[in-house]
Amino acid sequence: MANLMFQETAEAVYRNGQLLYDDQHFTDHIEHHVPIQIYSAKEHKDIGFIEQYCPNFVKVNHVLYNRSQFTFISRPGY
Fold this sequence. Notes:
Oligomer: single chain
Helix content: 25-40%
Strand order of the largest sheet: 1-7-2-3
Radius of gyration: 12 Å
Mean pLDDT: 88
Number of strands: 7
Low-confidence stretches: 1-7
Number of helices: 2
């Protein structure tokens, strides 16, 4: 029950479509298993859960995405 409340709280913090750019955004999405969508310019590239991240890359579905070349969007409830 506590985990469900904690997850709902995390999902409530991030709006569907919210831009992710700060390390804390990525940490929250990992900890609370909130999916993200990845875009290159306006073209959809991928959707999934963050596996890892560092200052330069975000790993989703075994693929490293450069943080300066892609846009990361929160998709809670997806």
